[in-house]
From TrEMBL:
Gene3D superfamilies: Zn(2)-C6 fungal-type DNA-binding domain
SUPFAM superfamilies according to UniProt: Zn2/Cys6 DNA-binding domain
Species annotation: Peltaster fructicola
Protein name: Zn(2)-C6 fungal-type domain-containing protein
Keyword Nucleus: yes
Length: 380
């Protein structure tokens, strides 16, 4: 039997040849194979990663904020930028004060710090893909943009300065949004691992940029840095506080302490969301995303190892995500996390998931109204 003829892979070839699994000669605007067969030769946008200009020994020192040249945008990128301004921002950032920076100064900043602009275009591509009949090409564009953003961010996050605080913080926030949003096009294979990834990203950036918070509170983009403090609360959510007995039953010493802290902090967060109706919606959502940042390293590592107690606490955190289910990047995540936790833990522990499961079934008039003891069946 004759051996199958092999050829080198074409990594920069057109999408048409990739779908046909044939080698492309990468000739633009129309490759040889598409030209011969009369096919539509389609290309994915491959954003060029801007390189830092060379600096000589005699050049004055410059901050990293000024080291990256502006990116070259193609027509497809401009369409994504238009979608970002007209569609993605209004759908992603819900309050007036929170929306305006994403339309104005942060876009301008993106042309100075291209990794930020690439992150915006990646999120725009994913958002556009959620309503597209042909999301594949948009996902390719999104992947290309987020790869450039991530590689550049990893370089510049090593030595941040006061000028780079806002673009680094904003880019990392967009990467979390991207991680949540891309799942709306292609559901995650392992929701727990994906959740752990964006939690690590949030925590890492928060650690790096914390030292610049005081200096930048009054920056033009100050609304992005505005803290979301928890209000003083009264009352109890038994479906959450009951987790303390699970922690003391399954863990000892510092591991138990980190889990108890996670339970108490989640309980206070949920009570604060329920009882402070005057808080702007964008600060409520920020409060949700600061819960993982506040957790102790031991608890985060328990999530990484898929410890049953940590996963059950995570399932209760998913109930908060359910309250934000109408916002496009957070749709379905509560269900994905809860189902993944149920699969990962021993069936003997499934009764501990009854409270978050009930939250996911309800459609309250008030999205922050949690079931109380007489509404939820708690494990004995």
């Amino acid at each position: 039997m004759a051996q199958r003829k092999t050829h080198a892979k074409s990594r920069l070839g057109c999408l048409t040849c990739k779908r046909r699994h044939v080698k492309c000669n990468e000739e633009r605007p129309k490759c040889d194979k598409c030209l011969k067969l009369g096919l539509h030769c389609k290309w994915a946008t491959r954003p060029d990663e801007s390189k830092s200009p060379a600096t000589s020994a005699s050049s004055p020192a410059t901050s990293q904020h000024n080291k990256i040249s502006s990116p070259n945008l193609g027509l497809a990128d401009l369409r994504l930028l238009h979608h970002w301004l007209r569609r993605t921002v209004p759908a992603s950032f819900v309050d007036g004060d929170a929306v305006q920076p994403w339309l104005d100064e942060l876009v301008e900043l993106g042309f100075e710090q291209p990794y930020l602009l690439h992150a915006m275009l990646a999120v725009a591509a994913v958002h556009k893909a959620t309503s597209s009949n042909n999301p594949g090409d948009l996902c390719l564009q999104a992947s290309a943009h987020i790869d450039v953003a991530l590689r550049s961010l990893q370089t510049y996050i090593k030595e941040p300065d006061a000028e780079s605080y806002v673009p680094i913080f904003t880019t990392a926030s967009l990467m979390v949004l991207y991680k949540l949003g891309v799942a709306q096009v292609e559901p995650p294979v392992d929701p727990i691992a994906d959740t752990y990834d964006w939690i690590r990203l949030l925590r890492g950036v928060a650690t790096v940029v914390h030292q610049f918070r005081d200096q930048l509170q009054h920056a033009a983009s100050g609304t992005l840095l505005q803290a979301a403090p928890m209000s003083e609360t009264t009352g109890e959510i038994p479906g959450v506080t009951h987790l303390r007995s699970l922690v003391t039953e399954l863990h000892v010493s510092d591991v138990a302490e980190s889990c108890l802290f996670a339970v108490d902090d989640l309980h206070d967060t949920m009570l604060s969301l329920e009882q402070d109706s005057t808080r702007p919606l964008h600060l409520s959502r920020r409060l949700i995303f600061t819960w993982p940042i506040r957790q102790r390293p031991a608890f985060v590592e328990l999530l990484s190892s898929k410890d049953p107690t940590a996963l059950i606490i995570l399932a209760h955190y998913a109930a908060v995500f359910h309250a934000c289910r109408k916002q496009w990047p957070m749709q379905n995540w509560a269900t994905w996390i809860l189902d993944a936790v149920k699969t990962a833990i021993d069936p003997a522990l499934h009764s501990w998931l009854s409270w978050p499961a009930q939250v996911l079934l309800q459609e309250p008039a008030d999205e922050w109204l949690w079931p109380k003891a007489n509404d939820a069946a708690l494990p004995s």
